[in-house]
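Margin note from the TA: students keep mixing up input and output lines. Inputs are the sequences; the output is the structure of the whole complex. Example:
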Amino acid sequence: MSLQKPIMRGLLAKRLRFHLPIAFALSLVAAAAFKYGVTEPRKQAYAEFYKQYDAMKEFNGMKEAGIFESVRPSGE
Amino acid sequence: MLQMTVGRVGSLLTRRGVMALTSANVRMASHGHGVSEQADLSLPMYWDRLDTPLPDKAYKDELTATDKSLKQKEKGPWTKLTNEEKIALYRIAFKDTYPEMKVPSHEWKTVVGGMLIFFGITGLIVIWQSHYVYPPTPHTFAPEWQAKQTQRMLDMRVNPIEGFANNWDYEKKQWK
């Protein structure tokens, strides 16, 4: 008849033993995913952009488009 | 239509309210319609709650003669109690067992239904408002103005590395 006495102690410790390593691992995975999915591509994009960047060419393009107030396009 | 909807939801919920009243062992109100006699809320009450395993008082106030003799037997060693007696002692102290407390109710349907009704009413109000209340759309939303605005953003090289102007091919003068 008699039931087994249920576990009375150490319930939180048992739960933490199981879940903490999983939580730690998932956090590391999340950080790695963000690093290699977002920040590394972004750094590459910036590096590639500035390899071929000609500041004067860009400035002249913007000037000819007429967006500046201090220097007008060459036609005017 | 509005009053009828609210009344329908209200009557559903008050029925559940009366049910909760009886389950809390407000014994004086359990036979009436819940309005005539109210329990004295300053005294300890019995309440079935999952997170409060031992309520403020036992469930049964008036013990029959068998109950009283059982309570006397409870004062001795518990190994001498039979299983049925143990269950009877439980039922004296508590109304529901944990599995009985956890039985799912149909309340969620009322809640979701009421929620969706109010979403619908809000939607109707929003539609009426956008037709009768809002002033005319600003001229800056017109397609011609939007085209000029886009061209100006490209001229300014807005976000040229990863963003807006990045998607425009300045050599071929078209979107990438």
